[in-house]
Specification:
The protein is an alpha/beta fold. It has one domain: NAD(P)-binding Rossmann-like Domain (Rossmann fold, 3-Layer(aba) Sandwich), CATH 3.40.50.720. Helix content is about 40%, strand content about 15%. The strands form five sheets. It has a seven-stranded parallel sheet with strand order 6-5-4-7-8-9-14, with helices on both faces. Helix 2 packs across helix 4. The two termini are about 20 Å apart.
Length: about 400
């Protein structure tokens, strides 16, 4: 290691040099992989401390990349899962979304670090844009991108060992997808992916489901467990409220997975995901954490559309990646696991904490009504802790801080 380089800079430089060399070798042998040649790569270097903003080009920050600290933490915490994936061939839907970007970046880093020789094929509506978004990952793993809609895509003519089905309905700024879009992407998309998984010989199948499957969480249930969907248990049934369409669709997707398993096909694991925080979370969609960060970064007052009393919990995206990789590798087939944090926080308190970090005011559109039951959306994660050894390593305060630093490009 050069005397002038820090250990972190040296590791990053070794990572980039190794990837660039491997990619050059692959291109010499077989031509460009997965599409047209990528742009020439400027020298990449990590600047700052272990908690800094991530990779930067010589000509300025490129905040699309995850911080090296996060990559190393995920690789260490999910080491067993990554080793179990050595030589795997993955098919991924939703690879360009929030979940997908964390999964693909952490997979690329772990594959380089552990020489896993994994391959990942990513379904996307726009392969060219996806290649540009992930150009910095180079190889390995050998990412390839295939064009298609999750509801109608043509099946790649090759075998796979694992599927991660994380496709989600699209949304416009601040507004969720329509009822038709939601039902189509979640239900029809899951059916299509399951049919393809059976055709491709897939055994391990991870569905990113949602805590929305539980419906409205009763105010006297602090943390909703996975068995709450059993008859007579603790949650209210879903209604025909348009806001609950997503929960209906995810329940249907789960049932399709279980029917496929009982038919002798894939072995699905159901990851019921709650709320999350971290880099890549959209700042202009229907996510309170992202919206609050976006307001604060723009210097606007944080606006709460309500009285601020609903309780949520937020799992940092690095922990999310560890949990999902572990569930894919070791989760019990046919079993559901909640994915989230048990640390409940009011929406108003979250806004205040983000506002304090970014130095902006908080505005509420309504005041709390005394005696009104508090809405909750908080999971019990006992099953994931006890059966898979999973835990939360980044608390909410640190999650806010890391996210802000990443967006600002701060060390």
């Amino acid at each position: 290691m050069p005397a002038s380089a820090s250990p972190l800079e040296f590791r990053q430089e070794a990572y980039e040099t190794s990837l660039a060399g491997l990619r050059s070798s692959l291109v010499r042998k077989a031509g460009p992989v997965g599409g047209p040649p990528l742009p020439s790569q400027a020298r990449l270097k990590y600047h700052g401390s272990m908690s800094g903003p991530g990779y930067q080009r010589a000509d300025g920050p490129q905040p699309s990349r995850l911080p090296l600290r996060d990559l190393e933490e995920v690789a260490a915490a999910a080491a067993g899962a990554f080793k179990a994936l050595r030589g795997a061939r993955l098919f991924v839907t939703g690879g360009t979304g929030f979940f997908g970007r964390w999964l693909l970046e952490t997979l690329a880093f772990a594959a380089w670090k552990e020489r896993l020789e994994v391959m990942a094929t990513v379904l996307t509506r726009d392969p060219g844009r996806a290649r540009a978004r992930f150009a910095h990952l180079l190889e390995p793993p050998r990412f390839s991108f295939v064009a298609g809609d999750v509801r109608t895509f043509s099946w790649p003519g090759r075998s796979f060992t694992h599927v991660i089905h994380a496709a989600a309905p699209s949304s416009t700024a601040g507004r969720p997808a329509s009822r038709t879009e939601t039902l189509g992407v979640v239900d029809r998309g899951t059916r299509r992916v399951l049919d393809f998984a059976a055709f491709a010989g897939v055994r391990r199948f991870l569905l990113t489901s949602s805590g929305a499957v539980y419906g409205r969480q009763p105010p006297d249930v602090d943390r909703v467990p996975e068995d709450a969907l059993e008859p007579g248990r603790s949650v209210e049934p879903l209604t025909n409220d348009p806001k609950e369409i997503y929960g209906h669709a995810k329940r249907q997707a789960e049932m399709r997975c279980l029917r496929a398993m009982h038919g002798g096909g894939v072995r699905p694991v159901l990851a019921r995901c709650f709320a999350f925080a971290g880099p890549h979370l959209p700042l202009d969609a229907h996510y309170a954490f992202g919206n609050f960060i976006g307001d604060g970064l723009a210097g606007r007052p944080i606006r709460i559309e309500g009285d601020g009393t609903p309780l949520r919990s937020y799992l940092y995206a690095g922990d999310l990646a560890v949990w999902l990789w572990t569930m894919l590798a070791f989760g019990e087939a046919g079993r559901a696991y909640n994915v989230g944090s048990e640390e409940a926080v009011g929406i108003g308190e979250l806004a205040e904490r983000v506002g304090a970090r970014l130095g902006v005011a908080v505005e509420r559109t309504r005041t709390p009504v005394p005696g009104q039951p508090v809405e909750r959306y908080v999971p019990s994660t006992e099953r994931a802790r006890e059966e898979l050894g999973l835990k939360v390593t980044v608390g909410l305060g640190e999650a806010i801080d890391r996210t802000v630093r990443w967006h600002r490009g701060e060390p």
